């Protein structure tokens, strides 16, 4: 999982789409082996049932108490089928187990809780966890090895500076509007960062890039200052200081995947004091997302320096999210790079 955590727990209020998200994530997280798991569902005024997904077996785990007007636990269901289902999940080849959902009824069965915690030591858990102040649910959500996504507030407000000030000397001129698969390089980066950030801005020294941004309703800062530090400072000043973090993204990195950008933002929302970057097989790359505490230093970078100066200064605060394909980290320096990327795209389509 790209956050670097072992488990992925989804929480949030009713109706937020938690189960839908889990069902869509399952084949992405475990493409080789179908996930085994457990699904629970309620019938209002009657009870709650548990179903083992692989065998289809069901058991009742909750009974509606009409006098008390609430659902009460039926522990036999947990301690027969529930325990057996968790055991079978632990023995499956799939590295992940899906649970939809873990709720307050589990509080009644210590045996089921212990079995679930033991399963989490052996497998990776993709689960909907009820948003309720109960001891066991709190225990799950507070685990250090769990990435918890709260669909009521999944992302902190962050900004994105798209670095588009390079002179393109090795390319032979401004490369940001050079076309890959019929689209400007800058357009690819716009798509990769769309819908994640509270504010975005392009910082450039090229009048034609400014015109393109205006035509595409993209905020832009045009300048004539020489250093990378100037681009960093101008971008932060344009976005404002009321953001939790800021992603610095190269404008010539066209195969950057939107889910990699989202993974950075989600990780930064969970651990807001960390500097997050993408990496492939341990080799760090861009983009890099800096938390708010770094803004003042980023604005005072030495002439010609970029954000990498802070990566070197605070290595203990840097964490990486691995990408699945090294191509995401490739940028375009020369015309040959553009030709190579176009060839890869054509090959992927079987041309």
Strand content: 25-35%
Note the gap between the termini. Answer: 32 Å
Q: C-alpha Rg, in Å?
A: 24 Å
Question: Got a strand count?
Answer: 17
Helix content: 25-40%
Fold and architecture overview:
The chain is of the alpha/beta class and 351 residues long. The chain folds into 2 domains: 7-150, 3-Layer(aba) Sandwich (Rossmann fold); 158-345, Alpha-Beta Complex (Spore Coat Polysaccharide Biosynthesis Protein SpsA, Chain A), CATH 3.90.550. It is 33% helix and 27% strand. It is built from 11 helices and 17 strands. It has an 8-stranded mixed beta sheet with strand order 5-4-3-2-6-7-1-8, with helices on both faces. A 7-stranded mixed beta sheet has the order 13-12-9-14-16-15-17, with helices on both faces. A hairpin with a 2-residue loop joins strand 10 and strand 11. Helix 2 packs parallel to helix 3 (110-122). It is elongated, with a radius of gyration of 24 Å.
């Amino acid at each position: 999982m790209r956050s670097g955590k072992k488990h992925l727990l989804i929480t949030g209020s009713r109706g937020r789409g938690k189960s839908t998200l889990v069902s869509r994530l399952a084949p992405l997280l475990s493409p080789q082996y179908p996930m085994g798991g457990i699904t629970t569902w309620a019938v209002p005024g009657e009870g709650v049932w548990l179903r083992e997904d692989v065998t289809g077996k069901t058991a009742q785990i909750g009974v509606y108490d009409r006098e008390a007007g609430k659902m009460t636990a039926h522990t036999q269901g947990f301690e027969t089928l529930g325990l057996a289902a968790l055991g079978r999940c632990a023995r499956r080849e799939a590295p992940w187990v899906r649970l939809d959902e873990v709720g307050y009824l589990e509080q009644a069965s210590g045996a089921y809780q212990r079995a679930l915690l033991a399963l989490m030591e052996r497998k990776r858990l993709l689960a909907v966890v009820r948003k309720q102040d109960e001891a066991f649910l709190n225990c799950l959500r507070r685990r250090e090895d769990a990435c918890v996504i709260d669909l009521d507030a999944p992302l902190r407000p962050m900004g994105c500076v798209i670095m588009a000030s390079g002179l393109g000397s090795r390319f032979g001129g401004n490369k940001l509007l050079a076309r890959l698969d019929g689209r400007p390089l800058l357009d690819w980066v716009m798509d990769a960062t769309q819908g994640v950030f509270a504010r975005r801005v392009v910082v450039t020294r090229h009048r034609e890039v400014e015109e393109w941004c205006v035509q595409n309703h993209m905020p832009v800062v045009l300048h004539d200052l020489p250093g990378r530090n100037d681009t960093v400072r101008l971008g932060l000043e344009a976005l404002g200081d009321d953001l939790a973090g800021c992603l610095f993204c190269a404008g010539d990195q066209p195969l950057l995947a939107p889910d990699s950008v989202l993974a950075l933002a989600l990780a930064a929302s969970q651990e807001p004091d960390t500097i997050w970057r993408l990496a492939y097989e341990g080799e760090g790359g861009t983009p890099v997302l800096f938390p708010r505490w770094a803004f003042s230093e980023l604005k005072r970078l030495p002439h010609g320096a970029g954000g990498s100066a802070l990566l070197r200064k605070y290595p203990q605060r840097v964490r990486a999210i691995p990408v699945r394909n090294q191509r995401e980290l490739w940028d375009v320096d020369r015309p040959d790079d553009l030709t190579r990327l176009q060839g890869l795209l054509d090959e992927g389509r079987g041309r």
